Amino acid sequence: MESGTDPKQKKSPLGRGLQSLIPVSPLDRELVHRIKLSDIKANRYQPRSEFIEEKLKDLELSIKENGVIQPIIVRKMQAGYELIAGERRFIAAQRAGLNEIPAIVKNVNDLKALELALIENIQRADLNPIEEARGYLMLSEEFSLSHEDIARQVGKSRTAITNALRLLKLPPKIQHALQDGSFTVGHAKVVLGLEDQDAQLDVFRQIVRNSFNVRNAEKLVQALKSPDKKTVVRSLTDPGLKQAFGEVTSTLRSKLKSRVEIKWNDTSGRLIIHFNSRKELEHIAKHFQ
Fold this sequence. Notes:
The chain has helices at residues 18-21, 26-30, 53-66, 87-95, 110-123, 129-143, 147-154, 158-166, 172-180, 185-191, 197-210, 214-225, 229-237, 239-256, 278-286; strands at residues 33-36, 40-41, 72-76, 81-85, 100-106, 260-264, 269-273. By secondary structure, the chain is of the alpha/beta class. The protein folds into 3 domains: 13-165, Alpha-Beta Complex (Conserved hypothetical protein from pyrococcus furiosus pfu- 392566-001, ParB domain), CATH 3.90.1530; 180-237, no CATH class; 240-286, no CATH class. The strands form 2 sheets. A 5-stranded mixed β-sheet has the order 1-5-3-4-2, with helices on both faces. A two-stranded antiparallel ribbon has the order 6-7. Strand 3 and strand 4 (81-85) form a beta hairpin. Helix 3 (53-66) crosses helix 4 (87-95).
């Protein structure tokens, strides 16, 4: 995380957001309808495939207490309505036992419906990397959009779209780890440096087993591509060295009563001692006087 960044100055990752695509004007606020939940069907282009149960439960309890504050967005179909944005509110309202839900009805085509569903989830940071990539893939395959077109639609760079779609080339096991948050996109990009899926899985297991940061993961992949790869890989994954660092870390934590980390690679390393107050710093300093 970058330091010195004013949260108030943080820009939206999207060049144009949901507000600009489906602006809720004063007129729209007057056109909020109450629609039967039974008349609304799920968005067939919804990029989300998973919901965090705990957050969904919290929203359900909030809706039971206060109702649905923010309207969902739907479009009129031949029979009933199709949900465009607000699927989590829709599901939580069903669970809360509501019969109706406030909704704004928009007249949009299939492409715009997918675009809006995708953008809402990206803005809320609700999509995991694989869900986001699948959303872009739908835009590409269903509507024959190029990466440049998709980038324009969702306000991201073409490179960001291309890199996201590359994640779908990874083995299913790695994709699942990206979905549940146990593996980062940074690590995944490194693994994509290998073309063979068996090699990708092997590196994935080593990264997870050894808790490698992205830098060490990069070194591991580079090592696998080098002529003397066995020697370099051994230095990166040496269990004896890892155990030794673990023992040193444990000893320092016990003596200093502070969180201690050792960052290392095959050539150098750093010892990091964390403190939360001046008093803690003075306590740590006494051990080195």
